[in-house]
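Many introductory courses stop at the sequence. We go one step further.
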Amino acid sequence: PQITGIATSVFELTKKLADRGHRIYIVSPKYGGFSYSHPNIHPIFCQSIPLFYQNTKLALPFNPRIVQMLKREKVDVVHVHTLMTLGLNAILAAKILKLPIVGTFHSFVMDRLYLKHIKLDYTVVEQWVWNYAKFMYNKCDLIVCPSEGSSIELKKRHWKQPIRVIPLGLDLKIFDNTKAQLVRAKYGKNSKLLLFVGRIAYEKNIPYLLECFSLVLEKVRNAKLLIVGDGPQMAEVKKKIAELDMDGSVILFGAIEREKLVKSGIYGACDLFVHASTTETGPLTVLEAQANGLV
């Protein structure tokens, strides 16, 4: 149920594979009241415990039911998308059944700014997480990265398994900008509209983006910055907006479900997409902006 680029990219990949006739099982933590359906996609929810970061849940360290399911359904390939306990579950189950394993490296979660959210932004912790990630992904038969840059970073650190770059894909048919003019009329018909879409978190570097936008306002007084997203740094971002006296120039939309965002006209209404993240593997929102003609 989380609105993240990783969750979106995984679901888009599975939908396209399922539409081609493949049978997909998505194993994820159990969230109360959440379900989804798509032909040939079978969700399997595991018992999990809540963490203190953004509605995140942690699966149990080992679940024998996953081994039983893989065997019963005659699964051919196991695809790992997380460093957390569910990823370890998948690798262990695949090793027991001698199944090939693909692991996609989605995010530099070992970066200090990610670790800052859990107050563990220390060099020793960063190095430990890198070592843990290397240990885990080297259990896979193939490592997939969404960008050349992330592939280069892993190779520099001597990850031994084969690494393939497979960029994220987009279904261009999902976008609908028929409401774009209405959005422009509401937020400034004659204004320059800048857009940021993403999690409101330390690694997205939004306070720096706001400082840059304050310089833009000195030259283009009627510019507006539209921010779509939510996250643990929202209070700090609101405080920064007030400090820079930009309450009327920065519009905070909060989180918008992707199915609604792509049909909202927000992408089509804006003139420029802005991004100041310090660490990315292949940002989906940048691709979405490009797909809507933004630079």
